[in-house]
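Protocol step 6 of 9: fold each sequence in the batch and record its structure tokens directly after the sequence line. For illustration, a two-sequence batch is reproduced in full.

Sequence one:
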Amino acid sequence: MVHSQLYRCFKLKPSRLRYGFQLFFGLGIAILLFKLLSLSMWIIAVLLLLISAYLLHRQASIEQLEQLDADLWSVKISQNAQIQNVRIEQIVDHLFYIVIYFEDINHLNKRSNFIIWQDQCDLKSWKMLKIQAKLA
């Protein structure tokens, strides 16, 4: 019983896959745009890509995720030190990352979602998250 409860708490590290994924697709888009646009338009497009990458980098990330009840979870977000209780609407497995959709986490009447990459947790925790995604 204690062993199964141990992996209901997921401590997450910063992801390197996330940055590699963004770099790969950002370079791919920049190369395609270089072929399609004039030089001045391409420079503007690359600047917009860099600004969007910077804004994505500043986005809040989850440090810890713990299941309290069947659909009640506690989440520690990197920007605030406090822990929030949230309800998970959906967990979607996309092979290298898992998307978790929360009910209105910021009380703005919109769904919040977070992406957890495979390299953010150890193998056993990753397998438990995949099982949660299949059960949800």
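Sequence two, same batch, same settings:
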Amino acid sequence: MTRHAQDQAKTSKLKTGYAQKVLSPQRLLDAPLPELLAELDVTLDESSITDPSFTGAAVVTRDRVILSMRPGQPDSERDAVARALLGRVLDVPLSPLPEPYRMSEV
């Protein structure tokens, strides 16, 4: 999969009730994504951002997590980025995303 070097996945990490959830790396990587999102009560929405360099963002509030993903994003990219964002939000130890992807906290 070829992507531009500017591709980034952004996340905001705040103290929330989600910090209490415990998820193993194996569960995060192996569970079907829709099942995982339902289990964690995470919403996945399409972003209004259509720039190909935007791969996703996690918005964390006091009581919920929303993953915002680019419309038209390839399924494999969406799956990998969503899991990486969830791992960051829930402090699940994962290997870094491959280049050219980068995680940024804002």
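Proceed to step 7 once all outputs are recorded. Observation for sequence two: The helical segments are 25-30, 33-40, 75-89.
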